[in-house]
Design a protein that fits this description.
The chain is mostly beta strands. It has a domain of 119 residues.
Length: 477
């Protein structure tokens, strides 16, 4: 996926339906589409995008008693399969697909009305469809809109996706040569100085694009093969879903609480969201981008951590300082594990909870069955983040130290100095590699650390002081 250069893109929320609604294509037809053109995406609102960027909108029959099948009844031009990109496909159950094309004025539309069978014109578009800005339909197809409103070119636009307007005033950095595992990837960076989300190619020190928010970002996570970003903003009760292929803010999921943290299952199919102002965990289905469930818990969650199997959540109650676990399968079992002063991070693995205390400078290990501490050990001062790699825990401190703890024999194996200056803050694994990025909140750089060699193998300059960092497996060029 490559994000094209943009100056401004429209932001349109379809508020006619609830935030949890998601359009589902008939299963046989979705299978047919993906078989004909592999890697075709069906967005949660029904928009269909092929790998070459061609878009189709679905039209559902007004009423049908026929069982959905993938049998094609009619196409325009005639006799075409989906892989041949026809302008119109009508299936046997009167479900239809219309290709979006540009007219002579450059507006998005569909083929001439005379090419569209009358039965399609009696159908209806998905009522949560994010209609591409400026799209127009033939006059005799207005019935397919239902309650859906189509924005015209004169509609208000939103500058969510923009090029970095300050790039010319910033220092010029030499082009960076990323390591193979980081090649053609993108860093998503937030800072403490700005409300923007910065999209930085790994071969550059500067943002290619900035995503403009109307508040400080609480979290940002790439999902769905990095086609979308899930973004939460301070003070807002919803999660924004940004579609990076269409370059629009595609949806909002309102949880009626202020989302503050998010953790994802290993396959990124399910998200667990903690709120800053409510004793609850919210479960979101990433495929449909809809709220599945709200689980009442004890305490207001902080430092969420989901174990590798996705079976148990750990969190700190920021009001009491108590640490709890929560099973992710019903019946949800919420269990108090310990009370530890000033927990900076926690990790859950194999019925154990590993807790870092920033003030006590300790790593403590608690058994979730016994609900008691079974081991503790001193760390260097200001332990701030923790990462598991194989049978080792990597403990990062704000004093630029990285310690290695063996989870099998409970021994601290090594203490490594990352830098002689700055304030190291976060450990960010590089997907499908043995590398991790170590952020430096007090310096314009980050470090690439090799977990196999246990050493820093690259120091990379940036134009930004990094607060939070995430990695996308795609390029923004």
């Amino acid at each position: 996926m490559k994000i094209k250069k943009i100056l401004a893109f429209a932001l349109v929320y379809m508020l006619t339906m609830s935030a949890s609604f998601a359009t589902k294509l008939p299963e046989p037809i979705e299978k047919y589409i993906k078989k004909e053109i592999p890697n075709t995406r069906v967005r949660f609102d029904g928009l269909i995008t092929t790998p070459n960027g061609t878009n189709y909108i679905p039209v559902f029959p007004a009423a049908t008693t026929r069982t959905p099948t993938a049998a094609v009844k009619e196409t325009y031009p005639a006799g075409k399969k989906f892989s041949q990109y026809p302008d119109v496909i009508l299936f046997e159950n009167n479900f239809a697909l219309l290709k979006l094309i540009k007219n002579k004025q450059g507006r998005l539309t569909v083929t001439n009305s005379k090419n569209i069978p009358p039965i399609i014109k009696t159908g209806v578009l998905p009522q949560d469809l994010l209609v591409p800005p400026g799209m127009i339909l033939p006059d005799d197809m207005k019935i397919v809109l239902g309650n859906l409103k189509i924005p015209l070119i004169s509609s208000p636009v939103n500058n969510f996706f923009q090029q970095d307007s300050n790039a010319k005033s910033k220092p010029v950095y030499k082009k960076i040569t990323p390591l193979p595992a980081l090649k053609n990837k993108t860093l998503i960076i937030t800072t403490l100085e700005s409300q923007n989300i910065n999209m930085v190619p790994t071969d550059s020190a500067e943002p290619k694009f900035v995503l403009k928010l109307n508040g400080l970002p609480r979290f940002v996570e790439p999902v769905s093969n990095d086609n979308y970003l899930m973004v939460a903003t301070s003070g807002k009760t919803f999660i924004d879903i940004a579609d990076l292929n269409q370059s629009v803010l595609a949806k909002k999921i309102d949880i009626s609480a202020v989302p503050s943290e998010i953790v994802l299952t290993s396959g990124k199919n399910t998200a667990y969201v903690g709120a800053a102002n409510e004793e609850a965990i919210f479960i979101i289905d990433v495929h449909s981008m809809s709220l599945l469930e709200k689980i009442k818990i004890t305490g207001i969650p902080k430092h969420l951590y989901l174990d590798e199997k996705g079976k148990m959540l750990g969190y700190l109650d920021k009001s009491s300082g108590n640490v709890y676990t929560l099973t992710t399968n019903m019946p949800y079992i919420n269990k108090r594990i310990a009370k530890v002063d000033n927990v900076s991070k926690l990790l859950v693995n194999d019925n154990k909870v590993y807790l870092l205390s920033r003030t006590e400078n300790k790593l403590s290990v608690y058994d979730t069955e016994l609900q008691e501490m079974i081991f503790d050990i001193d760390t260097v001062v200001k332990p701030i983040d923790i990462l598991q790699y194989k049978n080792k825990l990597y403990i990062l401190s704000g004093t630029n130290k990285l310690q290695i703890f063996n989870m099998d024999d409970f021994m601290m194996e090594a203490t490594i100095t990352i830098s002689d200056k700055g304030f190291t803050k976060e450990l960010v694994p590089v997907p499908n590699s043995n590398l991790v990025l170590i952020t430096n909140i007090a310096g314009n750089n980050y470090y690439v650390f090799d977990l196999a060699q246990n050493k820093v193998i690259q120091t990379v300059p940036t134009a930004l002081n990094i607060n939070e960092l995430r990695i996308m497996n795609v390029s923004v060029k």
